Task: structure prediction
Amino acid sequence: MISFLKNPTRIVRKVDEVVTAWETLAPTATFAGMTLAEFRTAVEPSKAERIRTAELEAELSGAAGRRAQADLNTNEKLKLVVAAVKGDPAHGENSALYRAMGYIPLGERASGLTRKAAAAEAPVGNN
Result:
């Protein structure tokens, strides 16, 4: 039996293949108690759900693009506000407001100076 769970698009190809063969070679035959028209009606919900799924995926993709653009705009506004707080004489980079916004005040920042650990002395070997 074909595993449709591993490759769901395979079922679409298989239905098309069965319908084409049925149409071509035995159009008036009845299989599993169904005519060709009844079979097409029976598999229509699967087709309709695939169409709806494709529409939703397209909608989701569009929404993700709009969200990404909105996030870029939001980030620009955030940068403007933070820069304004830093430059505001009543607040600035050392203010509680700046800290509450999630930034490290200027007076609390590390200097950036790092000291390398003293290298272990190389053992003196016999030459």
The chain has one domain: 9-106. Helices lie at 9-25, 36-87, 96-100.
